[in-house]
Design goal:
By secondary structure, the chain is α+β, with helices and mostly antiparallel strands. It has helices spanning 45-54, 88-92; strands at 24-25, 34-40, 61-68, 73-78, 82-86, 94-96. The longest helix is centred in the middle third of the chain and has 10 residues, at 45-54. It is elongated and about 45 Å long. The two termini are 20 Å apart. The mean pLDDT is 91.
Length: 97
């Protein structure tokens, strides 16, 4: 019985309780911190395909390696120490816990 659907939205418990909904986005995470993907704000096919291409899904652990002040993009590290540069727009659409 999962607590969340594939996009991270909460699924009510049999007694009607709703699991806590994380509100922090990847854009809020400081350099050096690690978080886990809890959901996404953007559910467009293009965004979901981009996540799939990056091999990022619910539960993926992400470390913010660097914050680029110029354009507010991030350098993140995912599975197997793979480093990726992502845009501010991308980071604002990933909900983390």
């Amino acid at each position: 019985h999962p607590d969340y659907d594939p996009h991270g939205d909460p699924i009510p418990k049999p007694d009607g309780r709703i699991p806590r909904i994380p509100t922090t986005t990847l854009a809020d995470v400081k350099a050096g911190e690690t978080c886990a993907v809890a959901g996404v704000k953007d559910t467009s096919p293009a965004y979901l395909q981009y996540l799939k291409n990056l091999r990022i899904s619910i539960g993926t652990r992400i470390k913010v390696v660097e914050r680029i002040e110029y354009d507010r993009s991030l350098v993140i590290e995912t599975r197997k120490s793979i480093r990726i540069s992502v845009s501010k727009q991308f980071a604002e659409s990933v909900i983390v816990d």
